[in-house]
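Notebook entry, structure prediction.
Reason for the run: the old model in the group folder had no record of what sequence produced it. Starting over properly, with the input documented here first.
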Amino acid sequence: MSETDRGFAEYFAARSDAMRRTAYLLCGDWHRAEDLVQTAFTRLYLAWGRVSRHDALDGYLRRTLLHAFLDERRLAWWRRVRPTGDEIPQVSPDVPVEDRLDLMRALAEVPARQRAVLVLRYWEDLSVDDTAAVLGVSAGTVKSQAARGLDTLRKQIAPLVPTCEES
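New structure, fully documented this time:
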């Protein structure tokens, strides 16, 4: 194995699980998440020899993953597919399964670009400016998309949360 391939293999081993979780939050399906991650890492591998700043790999990989997701969303077939909730993300066991499923279903109802902003900002914990750079939009667009996405998410979750009168 060449030194280049070894470096890529080490990076893949270190980052593939995190990218898979991010992809799952974007698309809501583990199999599609695997495909998105494979696409992103394949594109990274093809560019590996041209990458001069290996400290910027995470940003490049996130951007590539996001573009693969958004490109996929443009295909009519994927718009008809809805996650079934059969697969549960790996989160704290303290959170009831039903709550995780409800959150994933609600997130699936958020439009793709808004969902991408929410995942990058709140899951990947990127700043507004870093999120804007990954998406290729302005910081103001990130803020408005985050606000709209959170509003949509709240509207989806609100009927599931019991009120004080129901308790």
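Summary: The chain is about 70% helix and 0% strand.
The old model has been moved to the deprecated folder.
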